[in-house]
């Protein structure tokens, strides 16, 4: 029998880590507090509607392909992808703008907004392609344990080409002048957890992912990815225990010996022996709630000083009619990008007039809503750590964004709502033990990159490791798949001897 590893949490990173550990010959048990796998990417069914609860954008398809390839599989073995065209629509105060999947058509669109910007886009993406190549193929696969990992000639020689010392805002401004084009190029970093003036220009690689890699949709929803990864893990022999809420990590000396959990269905307490423990749940929660204080790697002051990526105010909505003119993805940029960004990251307050995003999966998929109905997912990015997360607040924001959407679309929506559920800070804390109610983890600022992130290996417990969006490489679905791989390699390196 191989060595035993306990993985806490069955989100993307936990699923990834579990599969790589099983591939390496370990006996793997995953403990998940919720009833199904997926973590923030769980699925919810209600009154004939099927909702993806979290991630809704499918970017970087090659990262998913690479993941399955490492197990001798293909994405198509588990789910079917469709490229969206247009990729998404942006609603400004004036007329909306559709972002075409075809690159030449996109260049023409840019030219129509700002003469000369087509050539600027070529140049911008040429630089972004280099960052994407080095970033995705080299940097994100580093475990971030020591500086020596970065003694790579391509990384060192290209450090200025990587633009780690320039801000995203100044980098975009160097290429584009029109406010709309600036916002288009800055929007992918909004969820990386800081204002564009605080995020390194390295992250223009996200623009490359958007424009060149394309925006895709997995048939039957994003949960298809979770089901595929769960199936793969099961095929590899991983054991899953659901409704198991981990109570503590049991130590002997400086090593974890077992993990104690309580079953939420029958209240039974169980202890699972482990040669290694991988924490795929919230890093802060594991440190502060599952370990004795003397075995924490980071202090309360450390955590309080971290710059967090946003939380979200989410609404899952079902309509009893079809909307005449809507795309799968819509961004409502009809208010101030700068004001909302400052409210998220600087003043950290409830937004006065927020930007918001709508996903209408039923436009692309007739399985997610009853016939003649529409499935809508609304998301408002908000600051972490907000208080006063009340039903009244949630309702206030919902009414405000619905009115704006009705105005832009020119048709009624509110009187056609037959299902509605909201989700915000208190839910992220209750369901995922999310630090400060975060949705996206730790911000990718320069001072929180790589070795400056919370380490993927505990500094105090020899055989405790971490994976997910609060450690390397960072927030987002593709990075979480990579995070599971990175941590599994670290475990194997240190304990598979």
Task: Give the SSE map.
Blueprint: E1 4-8, H1 12-23, E2 27-31, E3 43-46, E4 49-52, H2 61-69, E5 81-83, E6 88-91, E7 97-99, H3 103-113, H4 117-137, H5 153-157, H6 168-175, H7 179-186, H8 205-213, E8 216-218, H9 223-235, E9 239-241, E10 244-252, E11 255-263, E12 269-273, E13 276-279, H10 283-290, H11 300-304, E14 311-319, E15 329-332, H12 337-345, E16 356-359, E17 374-382, H13 391-409, E18 417-423, H14 425-432, E19 464-466, H15 477-495
Helix pairs in contact: 1-9, 1-15, 3-4, 4-8
Task: Report what the structure shows.
The chain has 497 residues and is α/β, with parallel strands linked by helices. Among the domains are: 4-78 and 221-305 and 443-495, FAD/NAD(P)-binding domain (3-Layer(bba) Sandwich), CATH 3.50.50; 104-199, no CATH class. 33% of the residues lie in helices and 20% in strands. It has 15 helices and 19 strands. The chain has helices spanning 12-23, 61-69, 103-113, 117-137, 153-157, 168-175, 179-186, 205-213, 223-235, 283-290, 300-304, 337-345, 391-409, 425-432, 477-495; strands at residues 4-8, 27-31, 43-46, 49-52, 81-83, 88-91, 97-99, 216-218, 239-241, 244-252, 255-263, 269-273, 276-279, 311-319, 329-332, 356-359, 374-382, 417-423, 464-466. It has a 7-stranded mixed beta sheet. A 5-stranded parallel beta sheet has the order 9-2-1-13-19, covered by helices on one side. A 3-stranded antiparallel beta sheet has the order 10-11-12. A hairpin with a 5-residue loop joins strand 6 and strand 7 (97-99). The longest helix has 21 residues, at 117-137. It is globular, with a radius of gyration of 22 Å. The protein starts with a strand and ends with a helix. The mean pLDDT is 95.
């Amino acid at each position: 029998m191989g060595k035993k590893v306990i993985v806490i949490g069955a989100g993307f990173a936990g699923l990834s880590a579990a599969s790589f550990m099983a591939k390496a010959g370990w006996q793997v048990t995953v403990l998940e507090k919720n009833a199904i796998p997926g973590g923030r990417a769980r699925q919810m069914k209600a009154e004939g509607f099927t909702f993806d609860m979290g991630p809704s954008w499918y970017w970087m398809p090659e990262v998913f392909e690479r993941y399955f390839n490492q197990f001798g599989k293909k994405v198509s073995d588990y789910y079917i992808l469709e490229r969206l065209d247009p990729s998404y629509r942006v609603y400004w105060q004036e007329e909306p703008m559709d972002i075409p999947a075809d690159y030449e058509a996109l260049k023409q669109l840019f030219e129509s907004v700002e003469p000369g910007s087509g050539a600027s886009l070529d140049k911008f993406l040429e630089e972004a392609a280099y960052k994407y190549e080095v970033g995705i193929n080299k940097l994100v696969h580093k475990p971030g344990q020591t500086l020596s990992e970065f003694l790579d000639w391509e990384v060192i020689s290209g450090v200025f080409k990587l633009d780690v010392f320039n801000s995203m805002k100044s980098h975009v401004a160097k290429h584009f002048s029109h406010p709309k084009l600036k916002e288009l190029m800055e929007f992918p970093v909004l969820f990386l957890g800081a204002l564009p003036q605080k995020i390194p220009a390295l992250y223009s690689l996200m623009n490359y992912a958007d424009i060149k890699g394309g925006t895709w949709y997995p048939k039957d929803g994003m949960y298809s990815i979770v089901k595929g990864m769960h199936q793969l893990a099961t095929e590899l022999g991983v054991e899953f225990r659901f409704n198991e809420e981990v109570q503590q990590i049991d130590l002997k000396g400086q090593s974890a010996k077992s993990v104690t959990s309580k079953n939420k269905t029958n209240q039974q307490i169980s202890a699972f022996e482990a040669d290694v423990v991988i924490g795929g749940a919230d890093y802060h929660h594991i440190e502060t709630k599952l370990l004795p204080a003397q075995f924490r790697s980071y202090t309360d002051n450390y955590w309080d000083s971290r710059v967090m990526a946003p939380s979200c105010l989410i609404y899952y909505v079902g309509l009893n009619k079809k909307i005449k003119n809507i795309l799968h993805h819509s961004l409502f940029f009809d208010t101030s990008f700068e004001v909302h960004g400052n409210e998220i990251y600087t003043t950290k307050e409830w937004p006065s007039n927020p930007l918001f995003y709508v996903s209408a999966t039923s436009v692309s998929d007739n399985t997610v809503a009853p016939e003649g109905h529409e499935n809508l997912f609304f998301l408002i990015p908000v600051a972490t750590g907000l208080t006063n997360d009340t039903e009244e607040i949630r309702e206030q924001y919902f009414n405000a964004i619905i009115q704006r959407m009705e105005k832009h679309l020119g048709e009624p929506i509110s009187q056609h709502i037959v299902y509605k559920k909201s989700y915000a800070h208190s839910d992220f804390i209750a369901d995922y033990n999310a630090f400060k109610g975060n949705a996206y983890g730790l911000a990718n600022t320069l001072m929180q990159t790589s070795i400056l992130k919370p380490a993927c290996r505990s500094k105090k417990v020899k055989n405790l490791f971490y994976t997910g969006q609060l450690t390397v490489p960072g927030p987002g679905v593709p990075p979480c798949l990579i995070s599971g791989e990175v941590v599994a390699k670290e475990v194997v390196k240190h304990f598979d001897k």
